[in-house]
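Table S5 (text form). Sequence records supplied for joint modeling of the two-component complex.
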Amino acid sequence: MFELLGIPPQALFGQLLLGLINGAFYAMLSLGLAVIFGMLNVINFTHGAQYMMGAFAAWLLLGILDVPFWASLVIAPIIVGLFGIVLEKLLLKRIYHLDHLYGFLLTFGLALVIEGLFQWKWGSSGAPYPNPIPGGFNLGFMFLPTYRGFVVLAALVICLATWYGIERTKLGAYLRAATENPTLVRAFGINVPRLITLTYGLGVGLAALAGVLAAPIQQVSALMGVNLVLVVFAVVVIGGMGSIMGSIVTGFGLGLIEGLTKVFYPPASNTVIFVVMALVLLIKPAGLFGQTK
Amino acid sequence: MNATRIGYAVLIVLALVAPLFAYPVFLMKALCFALFACAFNLLLGYAGLMSFGHAMFFGMAGYFYGHVVKAWDLAPEAGLLAGVGGAALLGLVTGALAIRRQGIYFAMITLAFAQMVFFFCVQAPFTGGEDGLQGIPRKALLGGLIPTKDDRVLYYVVLAIFLFGYAAIYRFIHSPFGQVLKAIRDNEQRAQSLGYEADRYKLLAFVLSAALAGLAGATKAMVQQFATLTDVAASTSGEVVLMALVGGLGTIIGPVVGAFIIVTMQNYLAFTGEFVLVIQGAIFVVIVLAFRKGVVGEFAEWWKRRQAR
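The corresponding structure-token record, covering 602 residues in total, follows.
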């Protein structure tokens, strides 16, 4: 057996895998936040609640209708995404002309309502979701549970697909143009309000998809998104919301840093991301991938 | 102007006789939150900076107070000073970093720092972790002159602290410093071009607001004799935003009204458990969509329209 700085390799790689998984969630959630902010100018505080709704949707689909995990992976984000579209149509669209602050407060209030209702109905202790692909591989230096490996790969694919959709397709080009100058894009005959609604639905769906992926790893509980969304805010501050690829790289990178901290100095693992945020603010206030605005 | 004076006189008389009609501990708690909300509003209403992490000053000051008075066995005055000073120092460090970004990023950064402080408090030995600091002794103030074992006596002490904080905020807002702050809020580039260093004014406002939030938090620990994680949690940061918003941002008395409304509501709805959060969230939504000026702001508007007729 070899050892690295006195750390057994199983522990090191185990924590790195955990960090990678957390990073996958940070990346997916900060990506959604960035896409929504770009179009709506709203920081979606409800993101954590919608992530939780995704996990709950999968759990309820399984429990009540016996829908398997793989179907939930598609159905749950659609359900939650549609819920997001309703929210946008009913509430969010009324505040676009106001200061950013009001969007933040409105979505914060919505998150309280949603999380409170789920907690009231199902309590705050979690419910387990069965692992859809049990088992794993022995890689020699560590044991890799198949599902966890799948989550990292799936998140990577989802993130890259979102990047491709926004940066390389025609619809994405419309989106970027509408972010830049909505009035002009409207003059070309493109329905910008509908584009905004769809963007919100997409961002919310992404959060829900992350929630479904998280369900077999974490307990499905009403408060699973509360602390996560706060960490994701720090991730967004570190990366800056200007670049899609930036969100992905920052998300995964910070997950790894968190994992490493857990190996070398466990008490700081909860706070390390915030420390990184403070350092980034000192050195490059606009964020690693952000433009100064 | 005269109506305002009469209004203040009525409020002060009400505050003086209030313990005859209401439970003093409840009143003291409401006063602490009222001061906290005023401190928050100094920042958002007058400097245009929305801190979503003010609980870190409020809650940490409570821990500082408890530690100084219980573990070090010093006088309560020293505890209050430690609370104010500690919160101001924390405000200086976090504020200096947070003002490097603007707008909504500022809110996210303060929120993130508050979360960091929260995690620190969960682990740090002197906060008592999940249990919090319990049984902080209530000692007599001014070297034994004012006994504080009796809730009714302590109420007047808390009222005096509140009035001191309120008067300080009133002074700040109506001083040249306050005018510059408002100028920066309305148009930062313009204020900068007139020679005011916006960042220094913003930082000073942030530190003052943190210090006053600390005064409120330390006073709360003195009254309730404990300091817990709830006071540093993100939910408390949200609560103070709600209080200021319900009462009316940018009005000096609004946060006081908002704090009393929210604390009363929590008191009467405590039996519903988690549902309080749902109601608070719903209030957020309704206020943002329909009553952005808050109770006091809407009332002032109505009064103005009436006068104009």
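Note: The two ends of chain A are 52 Å apart (CA to CA).
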